[in-house]
Prior knowledge:
It is a single chain. This protein is an all-beta fold and about 100 residues long. The chain has one domain: Immunoglobulin-like, CATH 2.60.40.10. About 0% of the residues lie in helices and about 55% in strands. It has no helices and 10 strands. Strands 3, 4, 7, 8, 9 and 10 form a 6-stranded antiparallel β-sheet that branches. A 4-stranded antiparallel β-sheet has the order 1-2-6-5, with no helix packed on it. It starts with a strand and ends with a strand. InterPro entries: Glyco_hydro_13_N (IPR004193), Ig-like_fold (IPR013783), Ig_E-set (IPR014756). This is Isoamylase early set domain-containing protein. It comes from Vibrio gallaecicus. It holds the Pfam family CBM_48.
Amino acid sequence: MINKRFFKTKDEVEVTFELEAQEATSVSIVADFLDWKETPMKKLAKGKVYKFKARLPRDEQFQFRYLVNGQQWVNDANADSYIQNGFGEDNCLVTTGQ
C-alpha cells in the first residue's frame, strides 16, 4: 500500500510505503531515491506489516521495489505504474503529483 500526504506550503510529499509479508523475517525497500541501497523497513507491532516513510520532491516519479528476506523481489500492487528494469522484470513507480 502507498499513502501520500501533500503539504500546502512545501514542495514535497510524504510517501508511506507498506507491505504485508506474512512469512517475512525482514523487508527492505530498494529505490532510486535511496541510491538503490537496501533500506530496512520498520515492522509494525500488529501483524506482519512493514512500513517506510520518505519525503520526496513534488511532481516527480520514483522507482522502487521491496526485498523480502534478502532474496525475494516483490512489487507493490498499489504502485502508480510499472517500468521495465534491466533485469527482465518490472520496477514499481510512485508519482508525487496530485
